[in-house]
Design brief:
The structure holds two protein chains of two kinds. By secondary structure, chain A is an all-alpha fold. In chain A, 77% of the residues lie in helices and 0% in strands. In chain A, helix 7 (124-142) crosses helix 9 and helix 9 packs antiparallel against helix 10. Chain B has two domains: 4-104, Ubiquitin-like (UB roll); 121-135 and 147-250, Alpha-helical ferredoxin (Fumarate Reductase Iron-sulfur Protein, Chain B, domain 2, Orthogonal Bundle). Chain B is elongated, with a radius of gyration of 20 Å. The chains are: A mainly alpha, B alpha+beta. Chains A and B meet through helix 1, helix 2, helix 3, helix 5 and helix 9 of A and strand 4, helix 2, helix 6, helix 7 and helix 8 of B.
Chain lengths: 228, 254
């Protein structure tokens, strides 16, 4: 019988390490998505705050970059931390995406939204994959680049002289905003933080934060292509 | 005189679990708008039977929206387009003359189709058997109010207990997840003092059983809450997440 088989499997699993069991469960994988996702939101906020120094001019931006790199090993540690988080977020996300795809083998002839879904929630795996591609491009543009005899401002300004990159970066930031608009509140729901007093604030924060990400980052390439 | 309408029905016909199914078209003529959706199907079935054809198989029992037996996806919406309504309580007055209505069964790997619109929802029973109960010694009935339960908690438990296990949450979920059902069942007992002694064990066992049954994972799409005929809130999913994570990380159960 199906029930006996399942309870047998579960009791066998229970002899395994409890942490692996917990993190491999559906809620466990979602917890990993939520915690790494929240960390990325924190990173985005920091990254945006730093980028805004570009409006202070060449020197302000270069000095921000210098101060950041002066952190030395702390910065390296944070970079590796982000990489580990990214691997966890992507692997857990793709696993969930595959499992969810497998959970409905025959499709509906008519599909309609009942009012719960949003553009953000309906496109999470796709915006996620697009963002991953963008992040690789972004790292090639500004991280794995020869920085001798030049300043970061010059590199950025040169990149955005090319209208192709301006368009790509603006589109990527729209995708990021859509991803974050669902991701932020969703992370709170997943860790169980759904409270009648705080949920309206969290929902509003998701929208405000996604707009801040979209406009905050998205306007920089436009600004630079004009201010050069 | 009651108003009547004519509809074109496209209904999923599948003769058995492992057979190939297809959408068949049936004209529904002179349908009284006072009929329920199931009464309309009865009319169609009577005609099919008289013509010597196989009637459309569908689940139903109480026909007053409380048993959880009925349900089909009507024009892409679980239990049809009305909010907080089961299929048996959906009336034909919500349709217009000349409408084409597509009727499909719940589609989820964990709910295999038995015939036409009838699906096997025993996966829900297996989740309940894994912990959706309290253990109590039998004997003389306890005095009423011997265990104090706060009124607000009792109300929330009652809201969760309103779940009739119809499966619309799974049908409506883009991922075919059973989180609203399992969340409601775990919440219903977790909120009351009688449910607390086994709360950690219950959360872990029910969730792990749910995972094993082939349901998808929740991505907080909120379609379940929008389609639930009992309007059960996703707050119950958050409570289950909390219960499961607390039980996994801080209790001695595993």
């Amino acid at each position: 019988m199906r029930r006996d088989k399942i309870s047998e499997t579960i009791s066998r699993e229970k002899k395994m390490n409890w942490m692996i069991q917990t993190l491999w469960s559906s809620i466990g994988k979602k917890l990993l998505m939520a915690l790494t996702g929240l960390a990325f939101c924190g990173f985005l906020a920091g990254h945006l705050a730093g980028n805004l120094t570009i409006y202070g001019g060449k020197d302000a931006f270069n000095s921000y970059a210098e101060h950041l790199h002066a952190l030395g090993p702390v910065l390296t540690l944070m970079e590796w931390g982000l990489l580990v988080f990214a691997v966890v977020h992507v692997c857990a996300g793709l696993t969930l995406f595959y499992q969810n795809f497998r959970a409905r083998t025959s499709r509906y002839a008519v599909n309609k939204w009942a009012g719960g879904r949003t553009i953000g929630s309906a496109t999470m795996p796709y915006t996620g994959i697009l963002l991953l591609t963008f992040i690789i491009l972004h790292l090639i543009n500004f991280h794995f680049v020869d920085k001798t005899n030049t300043t970061i401002y010059q590199i950025v300004a040169q990149t955005f002289e090319n209208p192709f990159y301006v368009v790509i970066y603006i589109l990527a930031m729209i995708v990021a905003a859509v991803h974050v608009s669902h991701g932020l509140w969703s992370a709170f729901q997943t860790i169980g933080a759904n409270h009648i007093k705080y949920m309206p604030f969290i929902m509003a924060l998701s929208i405000i934060f996604s707009l801040a990400v979209g406009f905050g980052f998205g306007i920089i390439p436009i600004y630079l292509s004009f201010a050069g | 005189m009651t108003k009547t309408i004519n509809l074109t029905l496209k209904i999923w016909r599948q003769s058995g679990p492992d057979r190939k199914g297809r959408l068949d078209t049936y004209p529904a003529t002179d349908i009284s708008t006072d009929m329920s959706f199931l009464e309309m199907l009865d009319v169609i079935n009577e005609k099919l039977t008289l013509a010597g054809k196989d009637p459309i198989a569908y689940d139903h029992d109480c026909r007053e929206g409380i048993c959880g037996m009925c349900g089909a996806v009507v024009n892409g919406r679980a239990h049809g387009p009305e909010k907080g309504t089961t299929l048996c309580q959906l009336h034909m007055r919500h349709f217009s003359d000349g409408d084409t209505v597509v009727v499909e069964p719940w589609r989820a790997k964990a709910f295999p189709i038995i015939k036409d619109l009838v699906v096997d929802r025993s996966a829900f029973d297996i989740i309940i058997q894994a912990g959706g109960f309290i253990s109590a010694n039998t004997g003389g009935a306890q005095d009423a109010n011997a265990i104090p339960a706060p009124q607000a908690a009792a109300e929330k438990a009652m809201d969760a207990a309103a779940c009739i296990g119809c499966g619309a949450c799974v049908a409506a979920c883009p991922n075919a997840a059973a989180m609203l059902f399992t969340g409601a069942k775990i919440s219903h007992l977790a909120l009351l003092p009688q449910g607390r002694p086994e709360a950690a064990k219950r959360a872990i066992n029910m969730l792990k059983t749910m995972d094993r049954l082939g349901f998808g994972n929740c991505t907080n799409e909120r379609e379940c809450e929008a389609e639930c005929p009992k309007e059960i809130s996703i707050v119950n999913i958050a409570r289950m997440n909390r219960e499961f994570l607390m039980a996994s990380f801080f209790s001695e159960e595993n």
